[in-house]
Amino acid sequence: MVNLLIAGDFCPNDRVARLIEQEEYSDILGEIKPIIAQMDYSLINLECPIVECPIKPKEKQGPNLKASQLAVKLIKYVNFKCVTLANNHFLDYGDEGVSHTLNILRYEHLDFVGGGEDLSRASGILYKDINGKKIAFINCCEHEFSIATEHSAGANPLNPIQQYYAIVEAKNKADYVIIVVHGGHEYFQLPSPRMQEIYRFFVDIGADAVINHHQHCYSGYEVYKEKPIFYGLGNFCFDKNTQRNSIWNEGYLVKLVLDNKIHFELYPYIQCNDTPNVVLMKKDRVDDFYSSIKCLNEIIADSCRLKLEHQHWMKEREGNLKLVLSPYSNRWFRIMASRGLLPMFLSKKRKLSLLNFIYCESHRDRIVYLLNEGERNE
């Protein structure tokens, strides 16, 4: 029997960063440490590179996150054994940031998976012999600005074809195959139908469990063909001064018991809310948590209802997406256009043209090449 623990996104910034600099590790994760100590092996998602020296941040959409080497000391303090690196911030400080992070992890004797100096190494499978069983770990993430290539560093991309070959290989070599994915809609507590289809496919071809994080909120789970799929763990330790008493501040750890049949247990917690730490939920909050999980699981189990919930969520937020398609460069004009106060100049013909470039794989190849070429020439 093997006891595994998987945690979500760890990004030690704001108040947590200040405590780390003072090496007040027990104040941050002291309450969680005894749980991790009971496990045979534990993993955490390192949601940012380790950057000590001045390194130019990568030009990208969204914030550039980083942490100091002391953050790795905190990871070791609570006895995590492995960090997953396939996420949308791993390449925030370019190849140099990746190299620095990997060197520190190696120096600290921490296992890692999902990131590397190039695609070949980023997509490598991590094998661990634990209690007489061989466990294979595969880690990948959705495509943003962090993806490794044949000749550059970064994260292992979500690519069901490549994951198929990896899972088949791992199944032939290991007793259990665990998939950890970083993806999903931020602040949406359900998987998209696309996610469910892919994660179930991973089980179909041999995965024994699939665990997802990224959305900054927890989601539900399902047991598909006797294999658990967790669609969102939530933030593990990710302080943000604009987020208090929200779904940002709640999450859960997953304990997997690998035996003849896979069992699991959840550890719900509150993170970086009133205080910059991670604490287990009290009894009254736990009851509310499991009630919420039950509702989410019921939706996940009903594909038609899941599709409707996903469409409803997207419909409510279509104004934000309209900003991307807006012809205006001025911020205020773009906001006014997204609210219908200014014309978008998106004719039916123009919409069909855009859809064609998005739907058709060959056309999409051309658009991606053009945008990447423009970035290289700037």
CATH topology of the largest domain: Purple Acid Phosphatase, chain A, domain 2
> Could you spell the SSE succession in H and E letters?
EHHHEHEHEEHEEEHEHEEEEEEEHHHHHH
Kindly state the percentage of residues in helix. Answer: 25-40%
Helix/strand-derived category reads alpha/beta
Number of strands: 16
CATH evolutionary superfamily of the largest domain: Metallo-dependent phosphatases
Name the CATH class of the largest domain. Answer: Alpha Beta
How many domains, in number, for the residues? Answer: 2
Please explain how this structure is put together:
With 378 residues, the protein is α/β, with parallel strands linked by helices. It has two domains: 2-302, Metallo-dependent phosphatases (Purple Acid Phosphatase, chain A, domain 2, 4-Layer Sandwich); 347-378. The chain contains 14 helices and 16 strands. Strand 9 (176-182), helix 8 and strand 10 form a beta-alpha-beta unit. The longest helix has 18 residues, at 283-300. The chain is globular, with a radius of gyration of 21 Å. Belongs to the CapA family. Residues 3-240 form the Capsule synthesis protein CapA domain. InterPro entries: Capsule_synth_CapA, CW_Biosynth-Accessory, Metallo-depent_PP-like.
